[in-house]
Structures are given as structure tokens and as C-alpha cells.
Design goal:
about 325 residues, alpha+beta, Chemotaxis protein chec, 6-stranded antiparallel beta sheet, 4-stranded antiparallel beta sheet, 8 helices, 12 strands, elongated, disordered N terminus, chemotaxis, cell membrane
């Protein structure tokens, strides 16, 4: 068992309740028969999930990277959008594959297992047509029981390299994975990267090339390693957000404490030049005529902070702040 916080499903709880109420175990001990319903309470496939926020961000970044790559290679405006994220078993997924399609396995190092890349045939044939000077509208087809022709395989390789590079960049915040090509087929039965009962995470992308061509690119990941990485990253983001929140609270407390500190503010209203003899001759009642200054410096703890103009407020001498010194 893992340390994950899992819960029994309603169906499993109902089964346990029925077993208690109907004395199934007592009936079996006494030699009688009892209704037995199998419930796998420890199979982790009952609790499949991935962090939707992290995985969604990866898919959106991947879509943006692919859109830029397709538009550049085909010299045609392309629109690519991440449409859905699903978790299901491989047997169910493989039955849903449209034939013909290109299937390519990609390594996930340093994660365990392989990913499966599916490219629908309209993308392959329209890309091939554009490479040979066409407008991307192709009626070429092939039966699922034959291999790709050399030209078609070359197009698959080009698209695979685009996807591989886009995947590497999209996953880079989590880890440095390689996504290198391993095997390419157009027959799903020849691909053996997952067990039929294995849980996989499937992301699908809607691809629009120009105004005419629509197709799909689908990527299937093994559930366990992908889930581990996305949850690890989600926890890291959560801890980072918590630290940021704590730092913000600490900064606010420090600001409030600083606002209560007393400081000394000084303004130099004028200057006078005199000799030692002149100063020594000063007596009570003597007047000193100060030379008038322009802008006055307002200092706080000896640091010039403002520029001010002298004047009066009623009968009291005052200053008016004219500007703030730049740091």
C-alpha cells in the first residue's frame, strides 16, 4: 500500500455493508451459500488521477510549441489546441484508434516506460502534399495492413521530431526527459509499449492546417511515472506558494513595525558666512540676515529625501514639498 490518501468507492462500501447485514460469512461457515461479489480494494487502478493543473499546463505549452513548429515547417498557418486529458486502460484506448494512423513509441528517460505518439492520417498526407508543392488537400490513402511508403515515413519522422522537441520543452519545468523515437508502425497490434490492463494518461490535440485539413495528435503516457512527476511538481509549487505567502506576511509585519519608528526630519532654511571675530561679537538681540536659498533640502536621518519651498502657514514658518528625490 502507498501513503496516498485513498477512499473506498460507494460500490465497495455498499458491498461491505451488505456482507454485514446479510450474514454472508456466517452462512459460508455453516456450509451454506452466499452471494460473493469481487472487489479489489488495493488495486491502485481504482484511484487513477493526475494533477490536472500541472498536466494541463504541460499540454497547453506543448500545443503552443507544436503550433509554432508546424507553421514553420509547412510554411502554413496552423492551429493546435489541447482538447482533453483522460485516464484509462490501454486495451480500451487501443480499440478507439482510428485506422490508418501513425503510431510511434518515445522513450521517457529518466522516467520509466515509453510514451505512444499517434498521428492521424490527414495530417500525414496533407503535410506530404505540401512538401511536394501542393495545397495540402490529398486524397491519398493506404490500407492498415501495409507499411508506410518511404515518403510517408519521412513525413512521420519530421513530425515526430517536432513533437519530441515540443515535449522536451513542455516538460522541462518538471524534468529533463529525452522523448527519443523507439519504434514506428501503422498497425496497433505491432506496438507493445503497454500491457492491456495498464493505466495510461492520454492527451489529445486538435490540429488545423490551413483552412482545409483537420486531424489529431494523441500522446499516451504510462500513468504511474507521469503521476509521480506531476504530483511531485505540484507539491513543490504548493510549498513555494506557502513560502511566498509567509514572506508576504513577514514583509507586511516589518512594514507596519517600520511605520511606527521615529525619525528626525531637518530642513536647512539658509546660510550665512562670518568670521570668528564676527561670531564672537554677537550679542542678544543681534539679527542675522540669511542668504536666500532656492529649493530647500529636506533630510531624514541625514539622507536628502525631498525638495521643498519655504513659506508661511498662518503665522508659522512652513515648507511645501515640491519633489521627491530619485533613489
Amino acid at each position: 500500500m502507498t501513503e496516498e490518501n485513498v477512499q473506498l468507492t460507494d460500490k465497495e462500501l455498499e458491498a461491505l455493508k451488505d456482507a454485514q447485514n446479510q450474514n454472508h460469512l456466517t452462512s459460508l461457515v455453516n456450509g451454506g451459500s452466499a452471494n460473493v461479489v469481487r472487489h479489489d480494494l488495493v488495486n491502485r487502478n481504482n484511484y487513477l488521477d493526475v494533477d490536472e493543473q500541472v498536466f494541463g499546463n504541460i499540454s497547453r505549452k506543448l500545443a503552443d510549441n507544436l503550433e509554432t513548429g508546424f507553421s514553420g515547417v509547412l510554411n502554413t498557418p496552423s492551429k493546435i489546441k489541447a482538447s482533453e486529458i483522460r485516464v484509462l486502460d490501454y486495451a480500451t484506448f487501443i480499440r478507439s484508434i482510428d485506422v490508418p494512423s501513425s503510431l510511434t513509441t518515445l522513450s521517457l528517460m529518466p522516467m520509466e516506460g515509453q510514451a505512444l505518439l499517434l498521428i492521424s492520417s490527414p495530417i500525414i498526407f496533407s503535410s506530404l502534399d505540401r512538401f511536394f508543392g501542393g495545397v495540402g488537400v490529398s486524397t491519398i490513402g493506404f490500407s492498415p495492413n501495409r507499411s508506410f511508403a518511404n515518403a510517408e515515413s519521412a513525413i512521420v519522422d519530421i513530425i515526430t521530431k517536432l513533437v519530441s522537441g515540443a515535449l522536451k520543452e513542455a516538460w522541462s519545468p518538471l524534468l529533463e526527459a529525452k522523448f527519443e523515437k523507439r519504434q514506428s508502425e501503422n498497425d496497433p497490434t505491432k506496438i507493445q509499449c503497454f500491457k492491456n490492463e495498464e493505466a495510461i494518461v492520454v492527451t489529445q490535440f486538435e490540429v488545423n492546417i490551413g483552412e482545409e485539413i483537420r486531424g489529431e495528435i494523441t500522446i499516451a503516457y504510462p500513468h504511474s511515472p507521469v503521476r509521480a512527476q506531476t504530483q511531485k511538481y505540484a507539491k513543490k509549487l504548493e510549498e513555494s506558494a506557502l513560502i511566498s505567502s509567509e514572506n508576504l506576511a513577514w514583509s507586511q509585519d516589518l512594514k507596519e513595525a517600520c511605520l511606527g519608528l521615529e525619525v528626525e526630519l531637518k530642513v536647512e532654511l539658509g546660510k550665512i558666512r562670518s568670521s570668528v571675530g564676527g561670531i564672537s561679537a554677537l550679542k542678544l538681540g543681534d539679527e542675522l540676515k540669511l542668504s536666500k536659498l532656492g529649493m530647500l533640502d529636506v533630510t531624514i536621518s541625514g539622507v536628502p529625501v525631498f525638495k521643498a519651498i519655504s513659506g508661511r502657514a498662518g503665522e508659522r514658518l512652513a515648507i511645501s514639498i515640491a519633489s521627491v528625490n530619485k533613489a
